[in-house]
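Reviewers of the previous submission asked for a worked example of the structure-prediction workflow described in the proposal, so we include one complete record here. The input consisted solely of the amino acid sequence. No template or homolog information was supplied to the procedure at any stage.
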Amino acid sequence: NATRPDTTRFWPLYGAAVGLAVGLLDTALLYVLGVTMTAGSRDVMIPVSVLFTGGYGTFGYVVGRLLVARRQLREDSTTIVSQYEQLQAQDRQLAEAEKLASLGRMAAGVAHEVRNPLGVIRSSAMLLRETAAGSANPDTDKLCAFMVEEVDRLDAYIGAILDFARPLSVKQVAIELREVVDRAVALAAIHVEQRAVTVVGEAQAHGDADVLVAVVLGLLVNAAEATSADGLVTVSVQKVGNAGILRISDDGDGMTEDVARKVFEPFFTTKARGTGLGLAMAARVAQAHNGELSWDGAGLKGRGATFTLTLPAEQRRPERQQPARSVA
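From that input alone, the workflow returned the following structure tokens.
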């Protein structure tokens, strides 16, 4: 498309032309009115008219230059603000990268120092459970089972921290979002139980289907847990412009404003046994796809919540390539 030429540089000339025109008009008006100017016995009408007309032209030129300077200052101000915002975004990204790097180093050390003892504790508990089978004390089996369960939970938590700290990279291939949702719904069946899950719409996107299935699975489980035993969960898929949109809505109690502000922060959770990394990891996966994961308080029937996953419908190279991991 042809763009309009920038005529800003001609503004001083326009101003000078307008000033000269005003000066000439003023001179003509003086002649029409019969005004004369003399200095002693000498007629100075023409020199004075030329002087005033030149003054008008100069004034118009100066005004034009001032307007150009004012516009340039506005453009410079806009550029500076934009660059400042970009620098702030880069600083946040660097801080996040450093935080993740520190978390990765810490997680690696914790995994090395803790996982081996946890394995020993788990093996010992299993052996004790087998040895105590059929004993007169029925609490022994329960205590051993409790130990194994807690060790497995701690091991899963360490694994979630390691997964979150690792860099992400995702495949960018054409996928059907409806197929991703159907796979996630099948995997979530044990968590959804009696809750009604409705899936509507179809759309294509570019991304890593296996990684996205894990993200959608986590969102479905969260939605199911937020509703009552006979609650409703709706998944809608549609294409909007150059993006594939996936929305998961529930009819639960929703979230408070304080919880909503922190919902994507690492290690923040309202669950008694949650890691606080599920939604944070899901948001990172969305960003790795050049997409976005957002939250809206408007769920089903005017209550609950809606999580929206936006993915590019066309293949785009991500800014940073990172190995894909499943969502904890």
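Helices lie at 11-32, 45-131, 139-165, 177-187, 189-192, 209-226, 257-262, 278-288. We consider this example representative of the routine output the project will generate in years two and three.
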